[in-house]
Amino acid sequence: MNSASSRAFALLLLALxxxxxxxxxxxxxxxxxxxxxxxxxxxxxxxAAAVLAPxxxxxxxxxxxxxxxxxxxxxxxxxxxxxxxxxLIYVGLHTTTAVNGVLLGSSAPLFILLCSWVIERERATxxxxxxxxxxxxxxxxxxxxxxVHDLLALDIHPGDGWILLAMLVWGLYSVxxxxxxxELGGTALLFLITLIGIAMLAPFVVWHALEAPxxxxxAAEGAGVLYLALFASLGxxxxxxxxxAIVGANTAGFTLHLVPAFGTGLAIVFLGEAFHAFxxxxxxxxxxxxxxxxxxxxxx
Length: 300
Prior knowledge:
Elements: H1 3-30, H2 37-62, H3 64-69, H4 71-95, H5 98-105, H6 108-120, H7 126-143, H8 148-152, H9 159-176, H10 186-211, H11 219-247, H12 249-254, H13 258-271, H14 277-294
Helix pairs in contact: 1-11, 1-13, 2-4, 2-10, 2-11, 4-9, 4-10, 5-9, 6-9, 7-14
């Protein structure tokens, strides 16, 4: 596969990850009153680990030496990408509006750039900066319904801080992916950090169950958790990890602007919301910004 094809394949994977994560916001919002944030995140990743185990176990056993050498990076990836990130999002969705949550979630590329600068000493290019501004304008058009007054009237909720903290954690995770043991394939890496993450979450789940005994979920609620495990966890993280490995954290970060675009489409399809002109304008700007930010420089 040549460099152009490899880059196109990476961007496709990153777009799929954004689509799956858009569904995560919807499922997390629906299930927020069914499960506490830590338990929901634990169930999500426990289901993912159960599916991954038959495919990843042998590779993990064969890579024991590499795992021991990379123990600290793996522990940090499990803590940031699995245990912390979505728990913080689910906490935030309890006390902030969906509009505020998505708007703050779209700030993830900024935190990736910040973490890349602090950890890797990388700086955004002019093309990436322009692309980010174009995409941000599209996001604001959608979230404000094309009305500046609506944007200025957004309510500020305590959960906003939790979601901003989640975006910082995601920036750390994306940059730390470069420190992963190179001997580990994508499936083995995801399985390992999933085990680490659910091990970190387990004590809090047990403590909460003792405080408030859980009830058995309905079929629809169980289906929501299954979606989180199979698509928002396995599918999205496999696509994201592979895409970041090819194009880098900075470029990958700009594709996260697709999450609110996909989220709008999912809301229209599954929640019956109407499609307006501002939706079309906003999605067009988001896609244009992603193209500008991720398009490689052409040679003379």
